[in-house]
Amino acid sequence: MAAQPDLWGDLEVAPIRTPVAILKEQAAVLGQKTRNVVEARVETSLTYNSHFVHSFSLVVPALDNYEYQLFKVQHAIDLYPVETPNQSLNNEPRVYGLAPNKAIFLRDQEALRELACSSDELICIYRATLSRFGKVILGAETRSG
Q: Which of 30, 39, 42, 43 has the most crowded Cβ, counting Cβ within 10 A?
């Protein structure tokens, strides 16, 4: 009997970090950097047109788990580019000179990592939390550790 032909070809693919993996990685790093004063949560949903939507939210445990959605990104099954609105959630443009209702397309893994790590809103929430509750939060940590 003749061997069946292989119609699939080479299915080897280069390794790639998925957007949700990068966001979860950065969420973990944020908690470590802030000694869990500010943590992050990543939630994923699927849209009606089969796009993945990832919400990156900041969580402040000392403020009764206060949560602030920092940004959302979405992508199709092919992962990149990742799309995000050119508008932070406080209605400020992320890229000045581009209309807020326009989308920003992040072409690769590095561009997505930069978005996750470069938010003025994150710095604002972290500073406000430390200035208001820092002695309580950090004092409790030094007493127990």
A: 30
Q: What is the DSSP string of 27-41?
A: HHHHHHHTTTSSEEE
Residue type, 19: P
129 vs 51, 124, 136, CA distance in Å? 34, 9, 10
pTM of the predicted structure, to 2 decimals = 0.73
Cα→Cα distances 67→58, 71, 81, 83, 93, Å: 6, 12, 27, 23, 21
- Give a yes or no: residue 53 inside a domain: yes
Domain that residue 24 falls in: 19-144
Q: Encode pLDDT of 85-107 as tens digits.
A: 765 555 555 555 555 566 778 88
State whether residue 54 is helix, strand or coil: strand
With 80 as the cut, is the pLDDT of residue 62 above it? yes
Judge whether 40 lies within some domain.
Answer: yes
Q: Domains in the chain: how many in total?
A: 1
Residues 6+ apart with CB under 8 A from 88: 71, 94, 119, 120, 121
